Amino acid sequence: MTVKSGTRWNHNIHYHSRILGAVPAGARRALDVGCGEGMLARELRRAVPYVAGIDLDAPSIDQARKHPDDVDYVLGDFLTHPFGPGSFDVIASVAALHHMDAAAGLARMRDLLRPGGVLAVVGLARSTMPADLPRDLAGVVVGTLHRVVKGHWEHPSPIVWPPPVTYPQMRALAAELLPGSRFRRHLLLRYSLIWRKPQG
């Protein structure tokens, strides 16, 4: 692990602002899906009174629970854990959706969100070659420059590579399961997905 200036940086953390900027005003309950050691959950807690983080990886949850915060860290499977339908105002997920069946994950997030609530995802998808090669090369160059300046924090959670779903497939899934969602592909080999659940 290399960290400079006392600040963590990696490709996932770089896009935390996409999540935090999507938190709706007045949100009372948030869920971080695939919370790892809890960095995003703790950032969410600064804006939302109750935050739960769930992850399947026991060492990561153990690490999260060592922090002096009041986030509710849950060791379990997001797809089957008995959260109540419509019980969260905001559901966030960073680099976790490709660890599960993407369609099942998005549908579960949709069902756990209250009407008017916001789903915010930053994820990884698989490039299609050779069409994506120029974009990916640009992302590697920019990512390398960020590392030189900021260092690189290696998260402790398990890694799945390559992602099973391509960018076009992910965009199509979002359009099908979350009509009206905003899907954006980012330079540093990530996509973001923002969706507000309709009222009523």
Automatic annotation (TrEMBL):
Domain Methyltransferase type: 31-120
CDD domains (alphabetical): AdoMet_MTases
Highest taxon in the source lineage: Bacteria
Record key words, sorted: Methyltransferase, Transferase
Pfam families linked to this entry: Methyltransf_11
InterPro entries, alphabetized: Diverse_substrate_MTase, Methyltransf_11, SAM-dependent_MTases_sf
Family: Belongs to the methyltransferase superfamily.
Alphabetized PANTHER family for the sequence: METHYLTRANSF_11 DOMAIN-CONTAINING PROTEIN (PTHR44942), METHYLTRANSFERASE TYPE 11 DOMAIN-CONTAINING PROTEIN (PTHR44942:SF4)
Protein name: Methyltransferase type 11 domain-containing protein
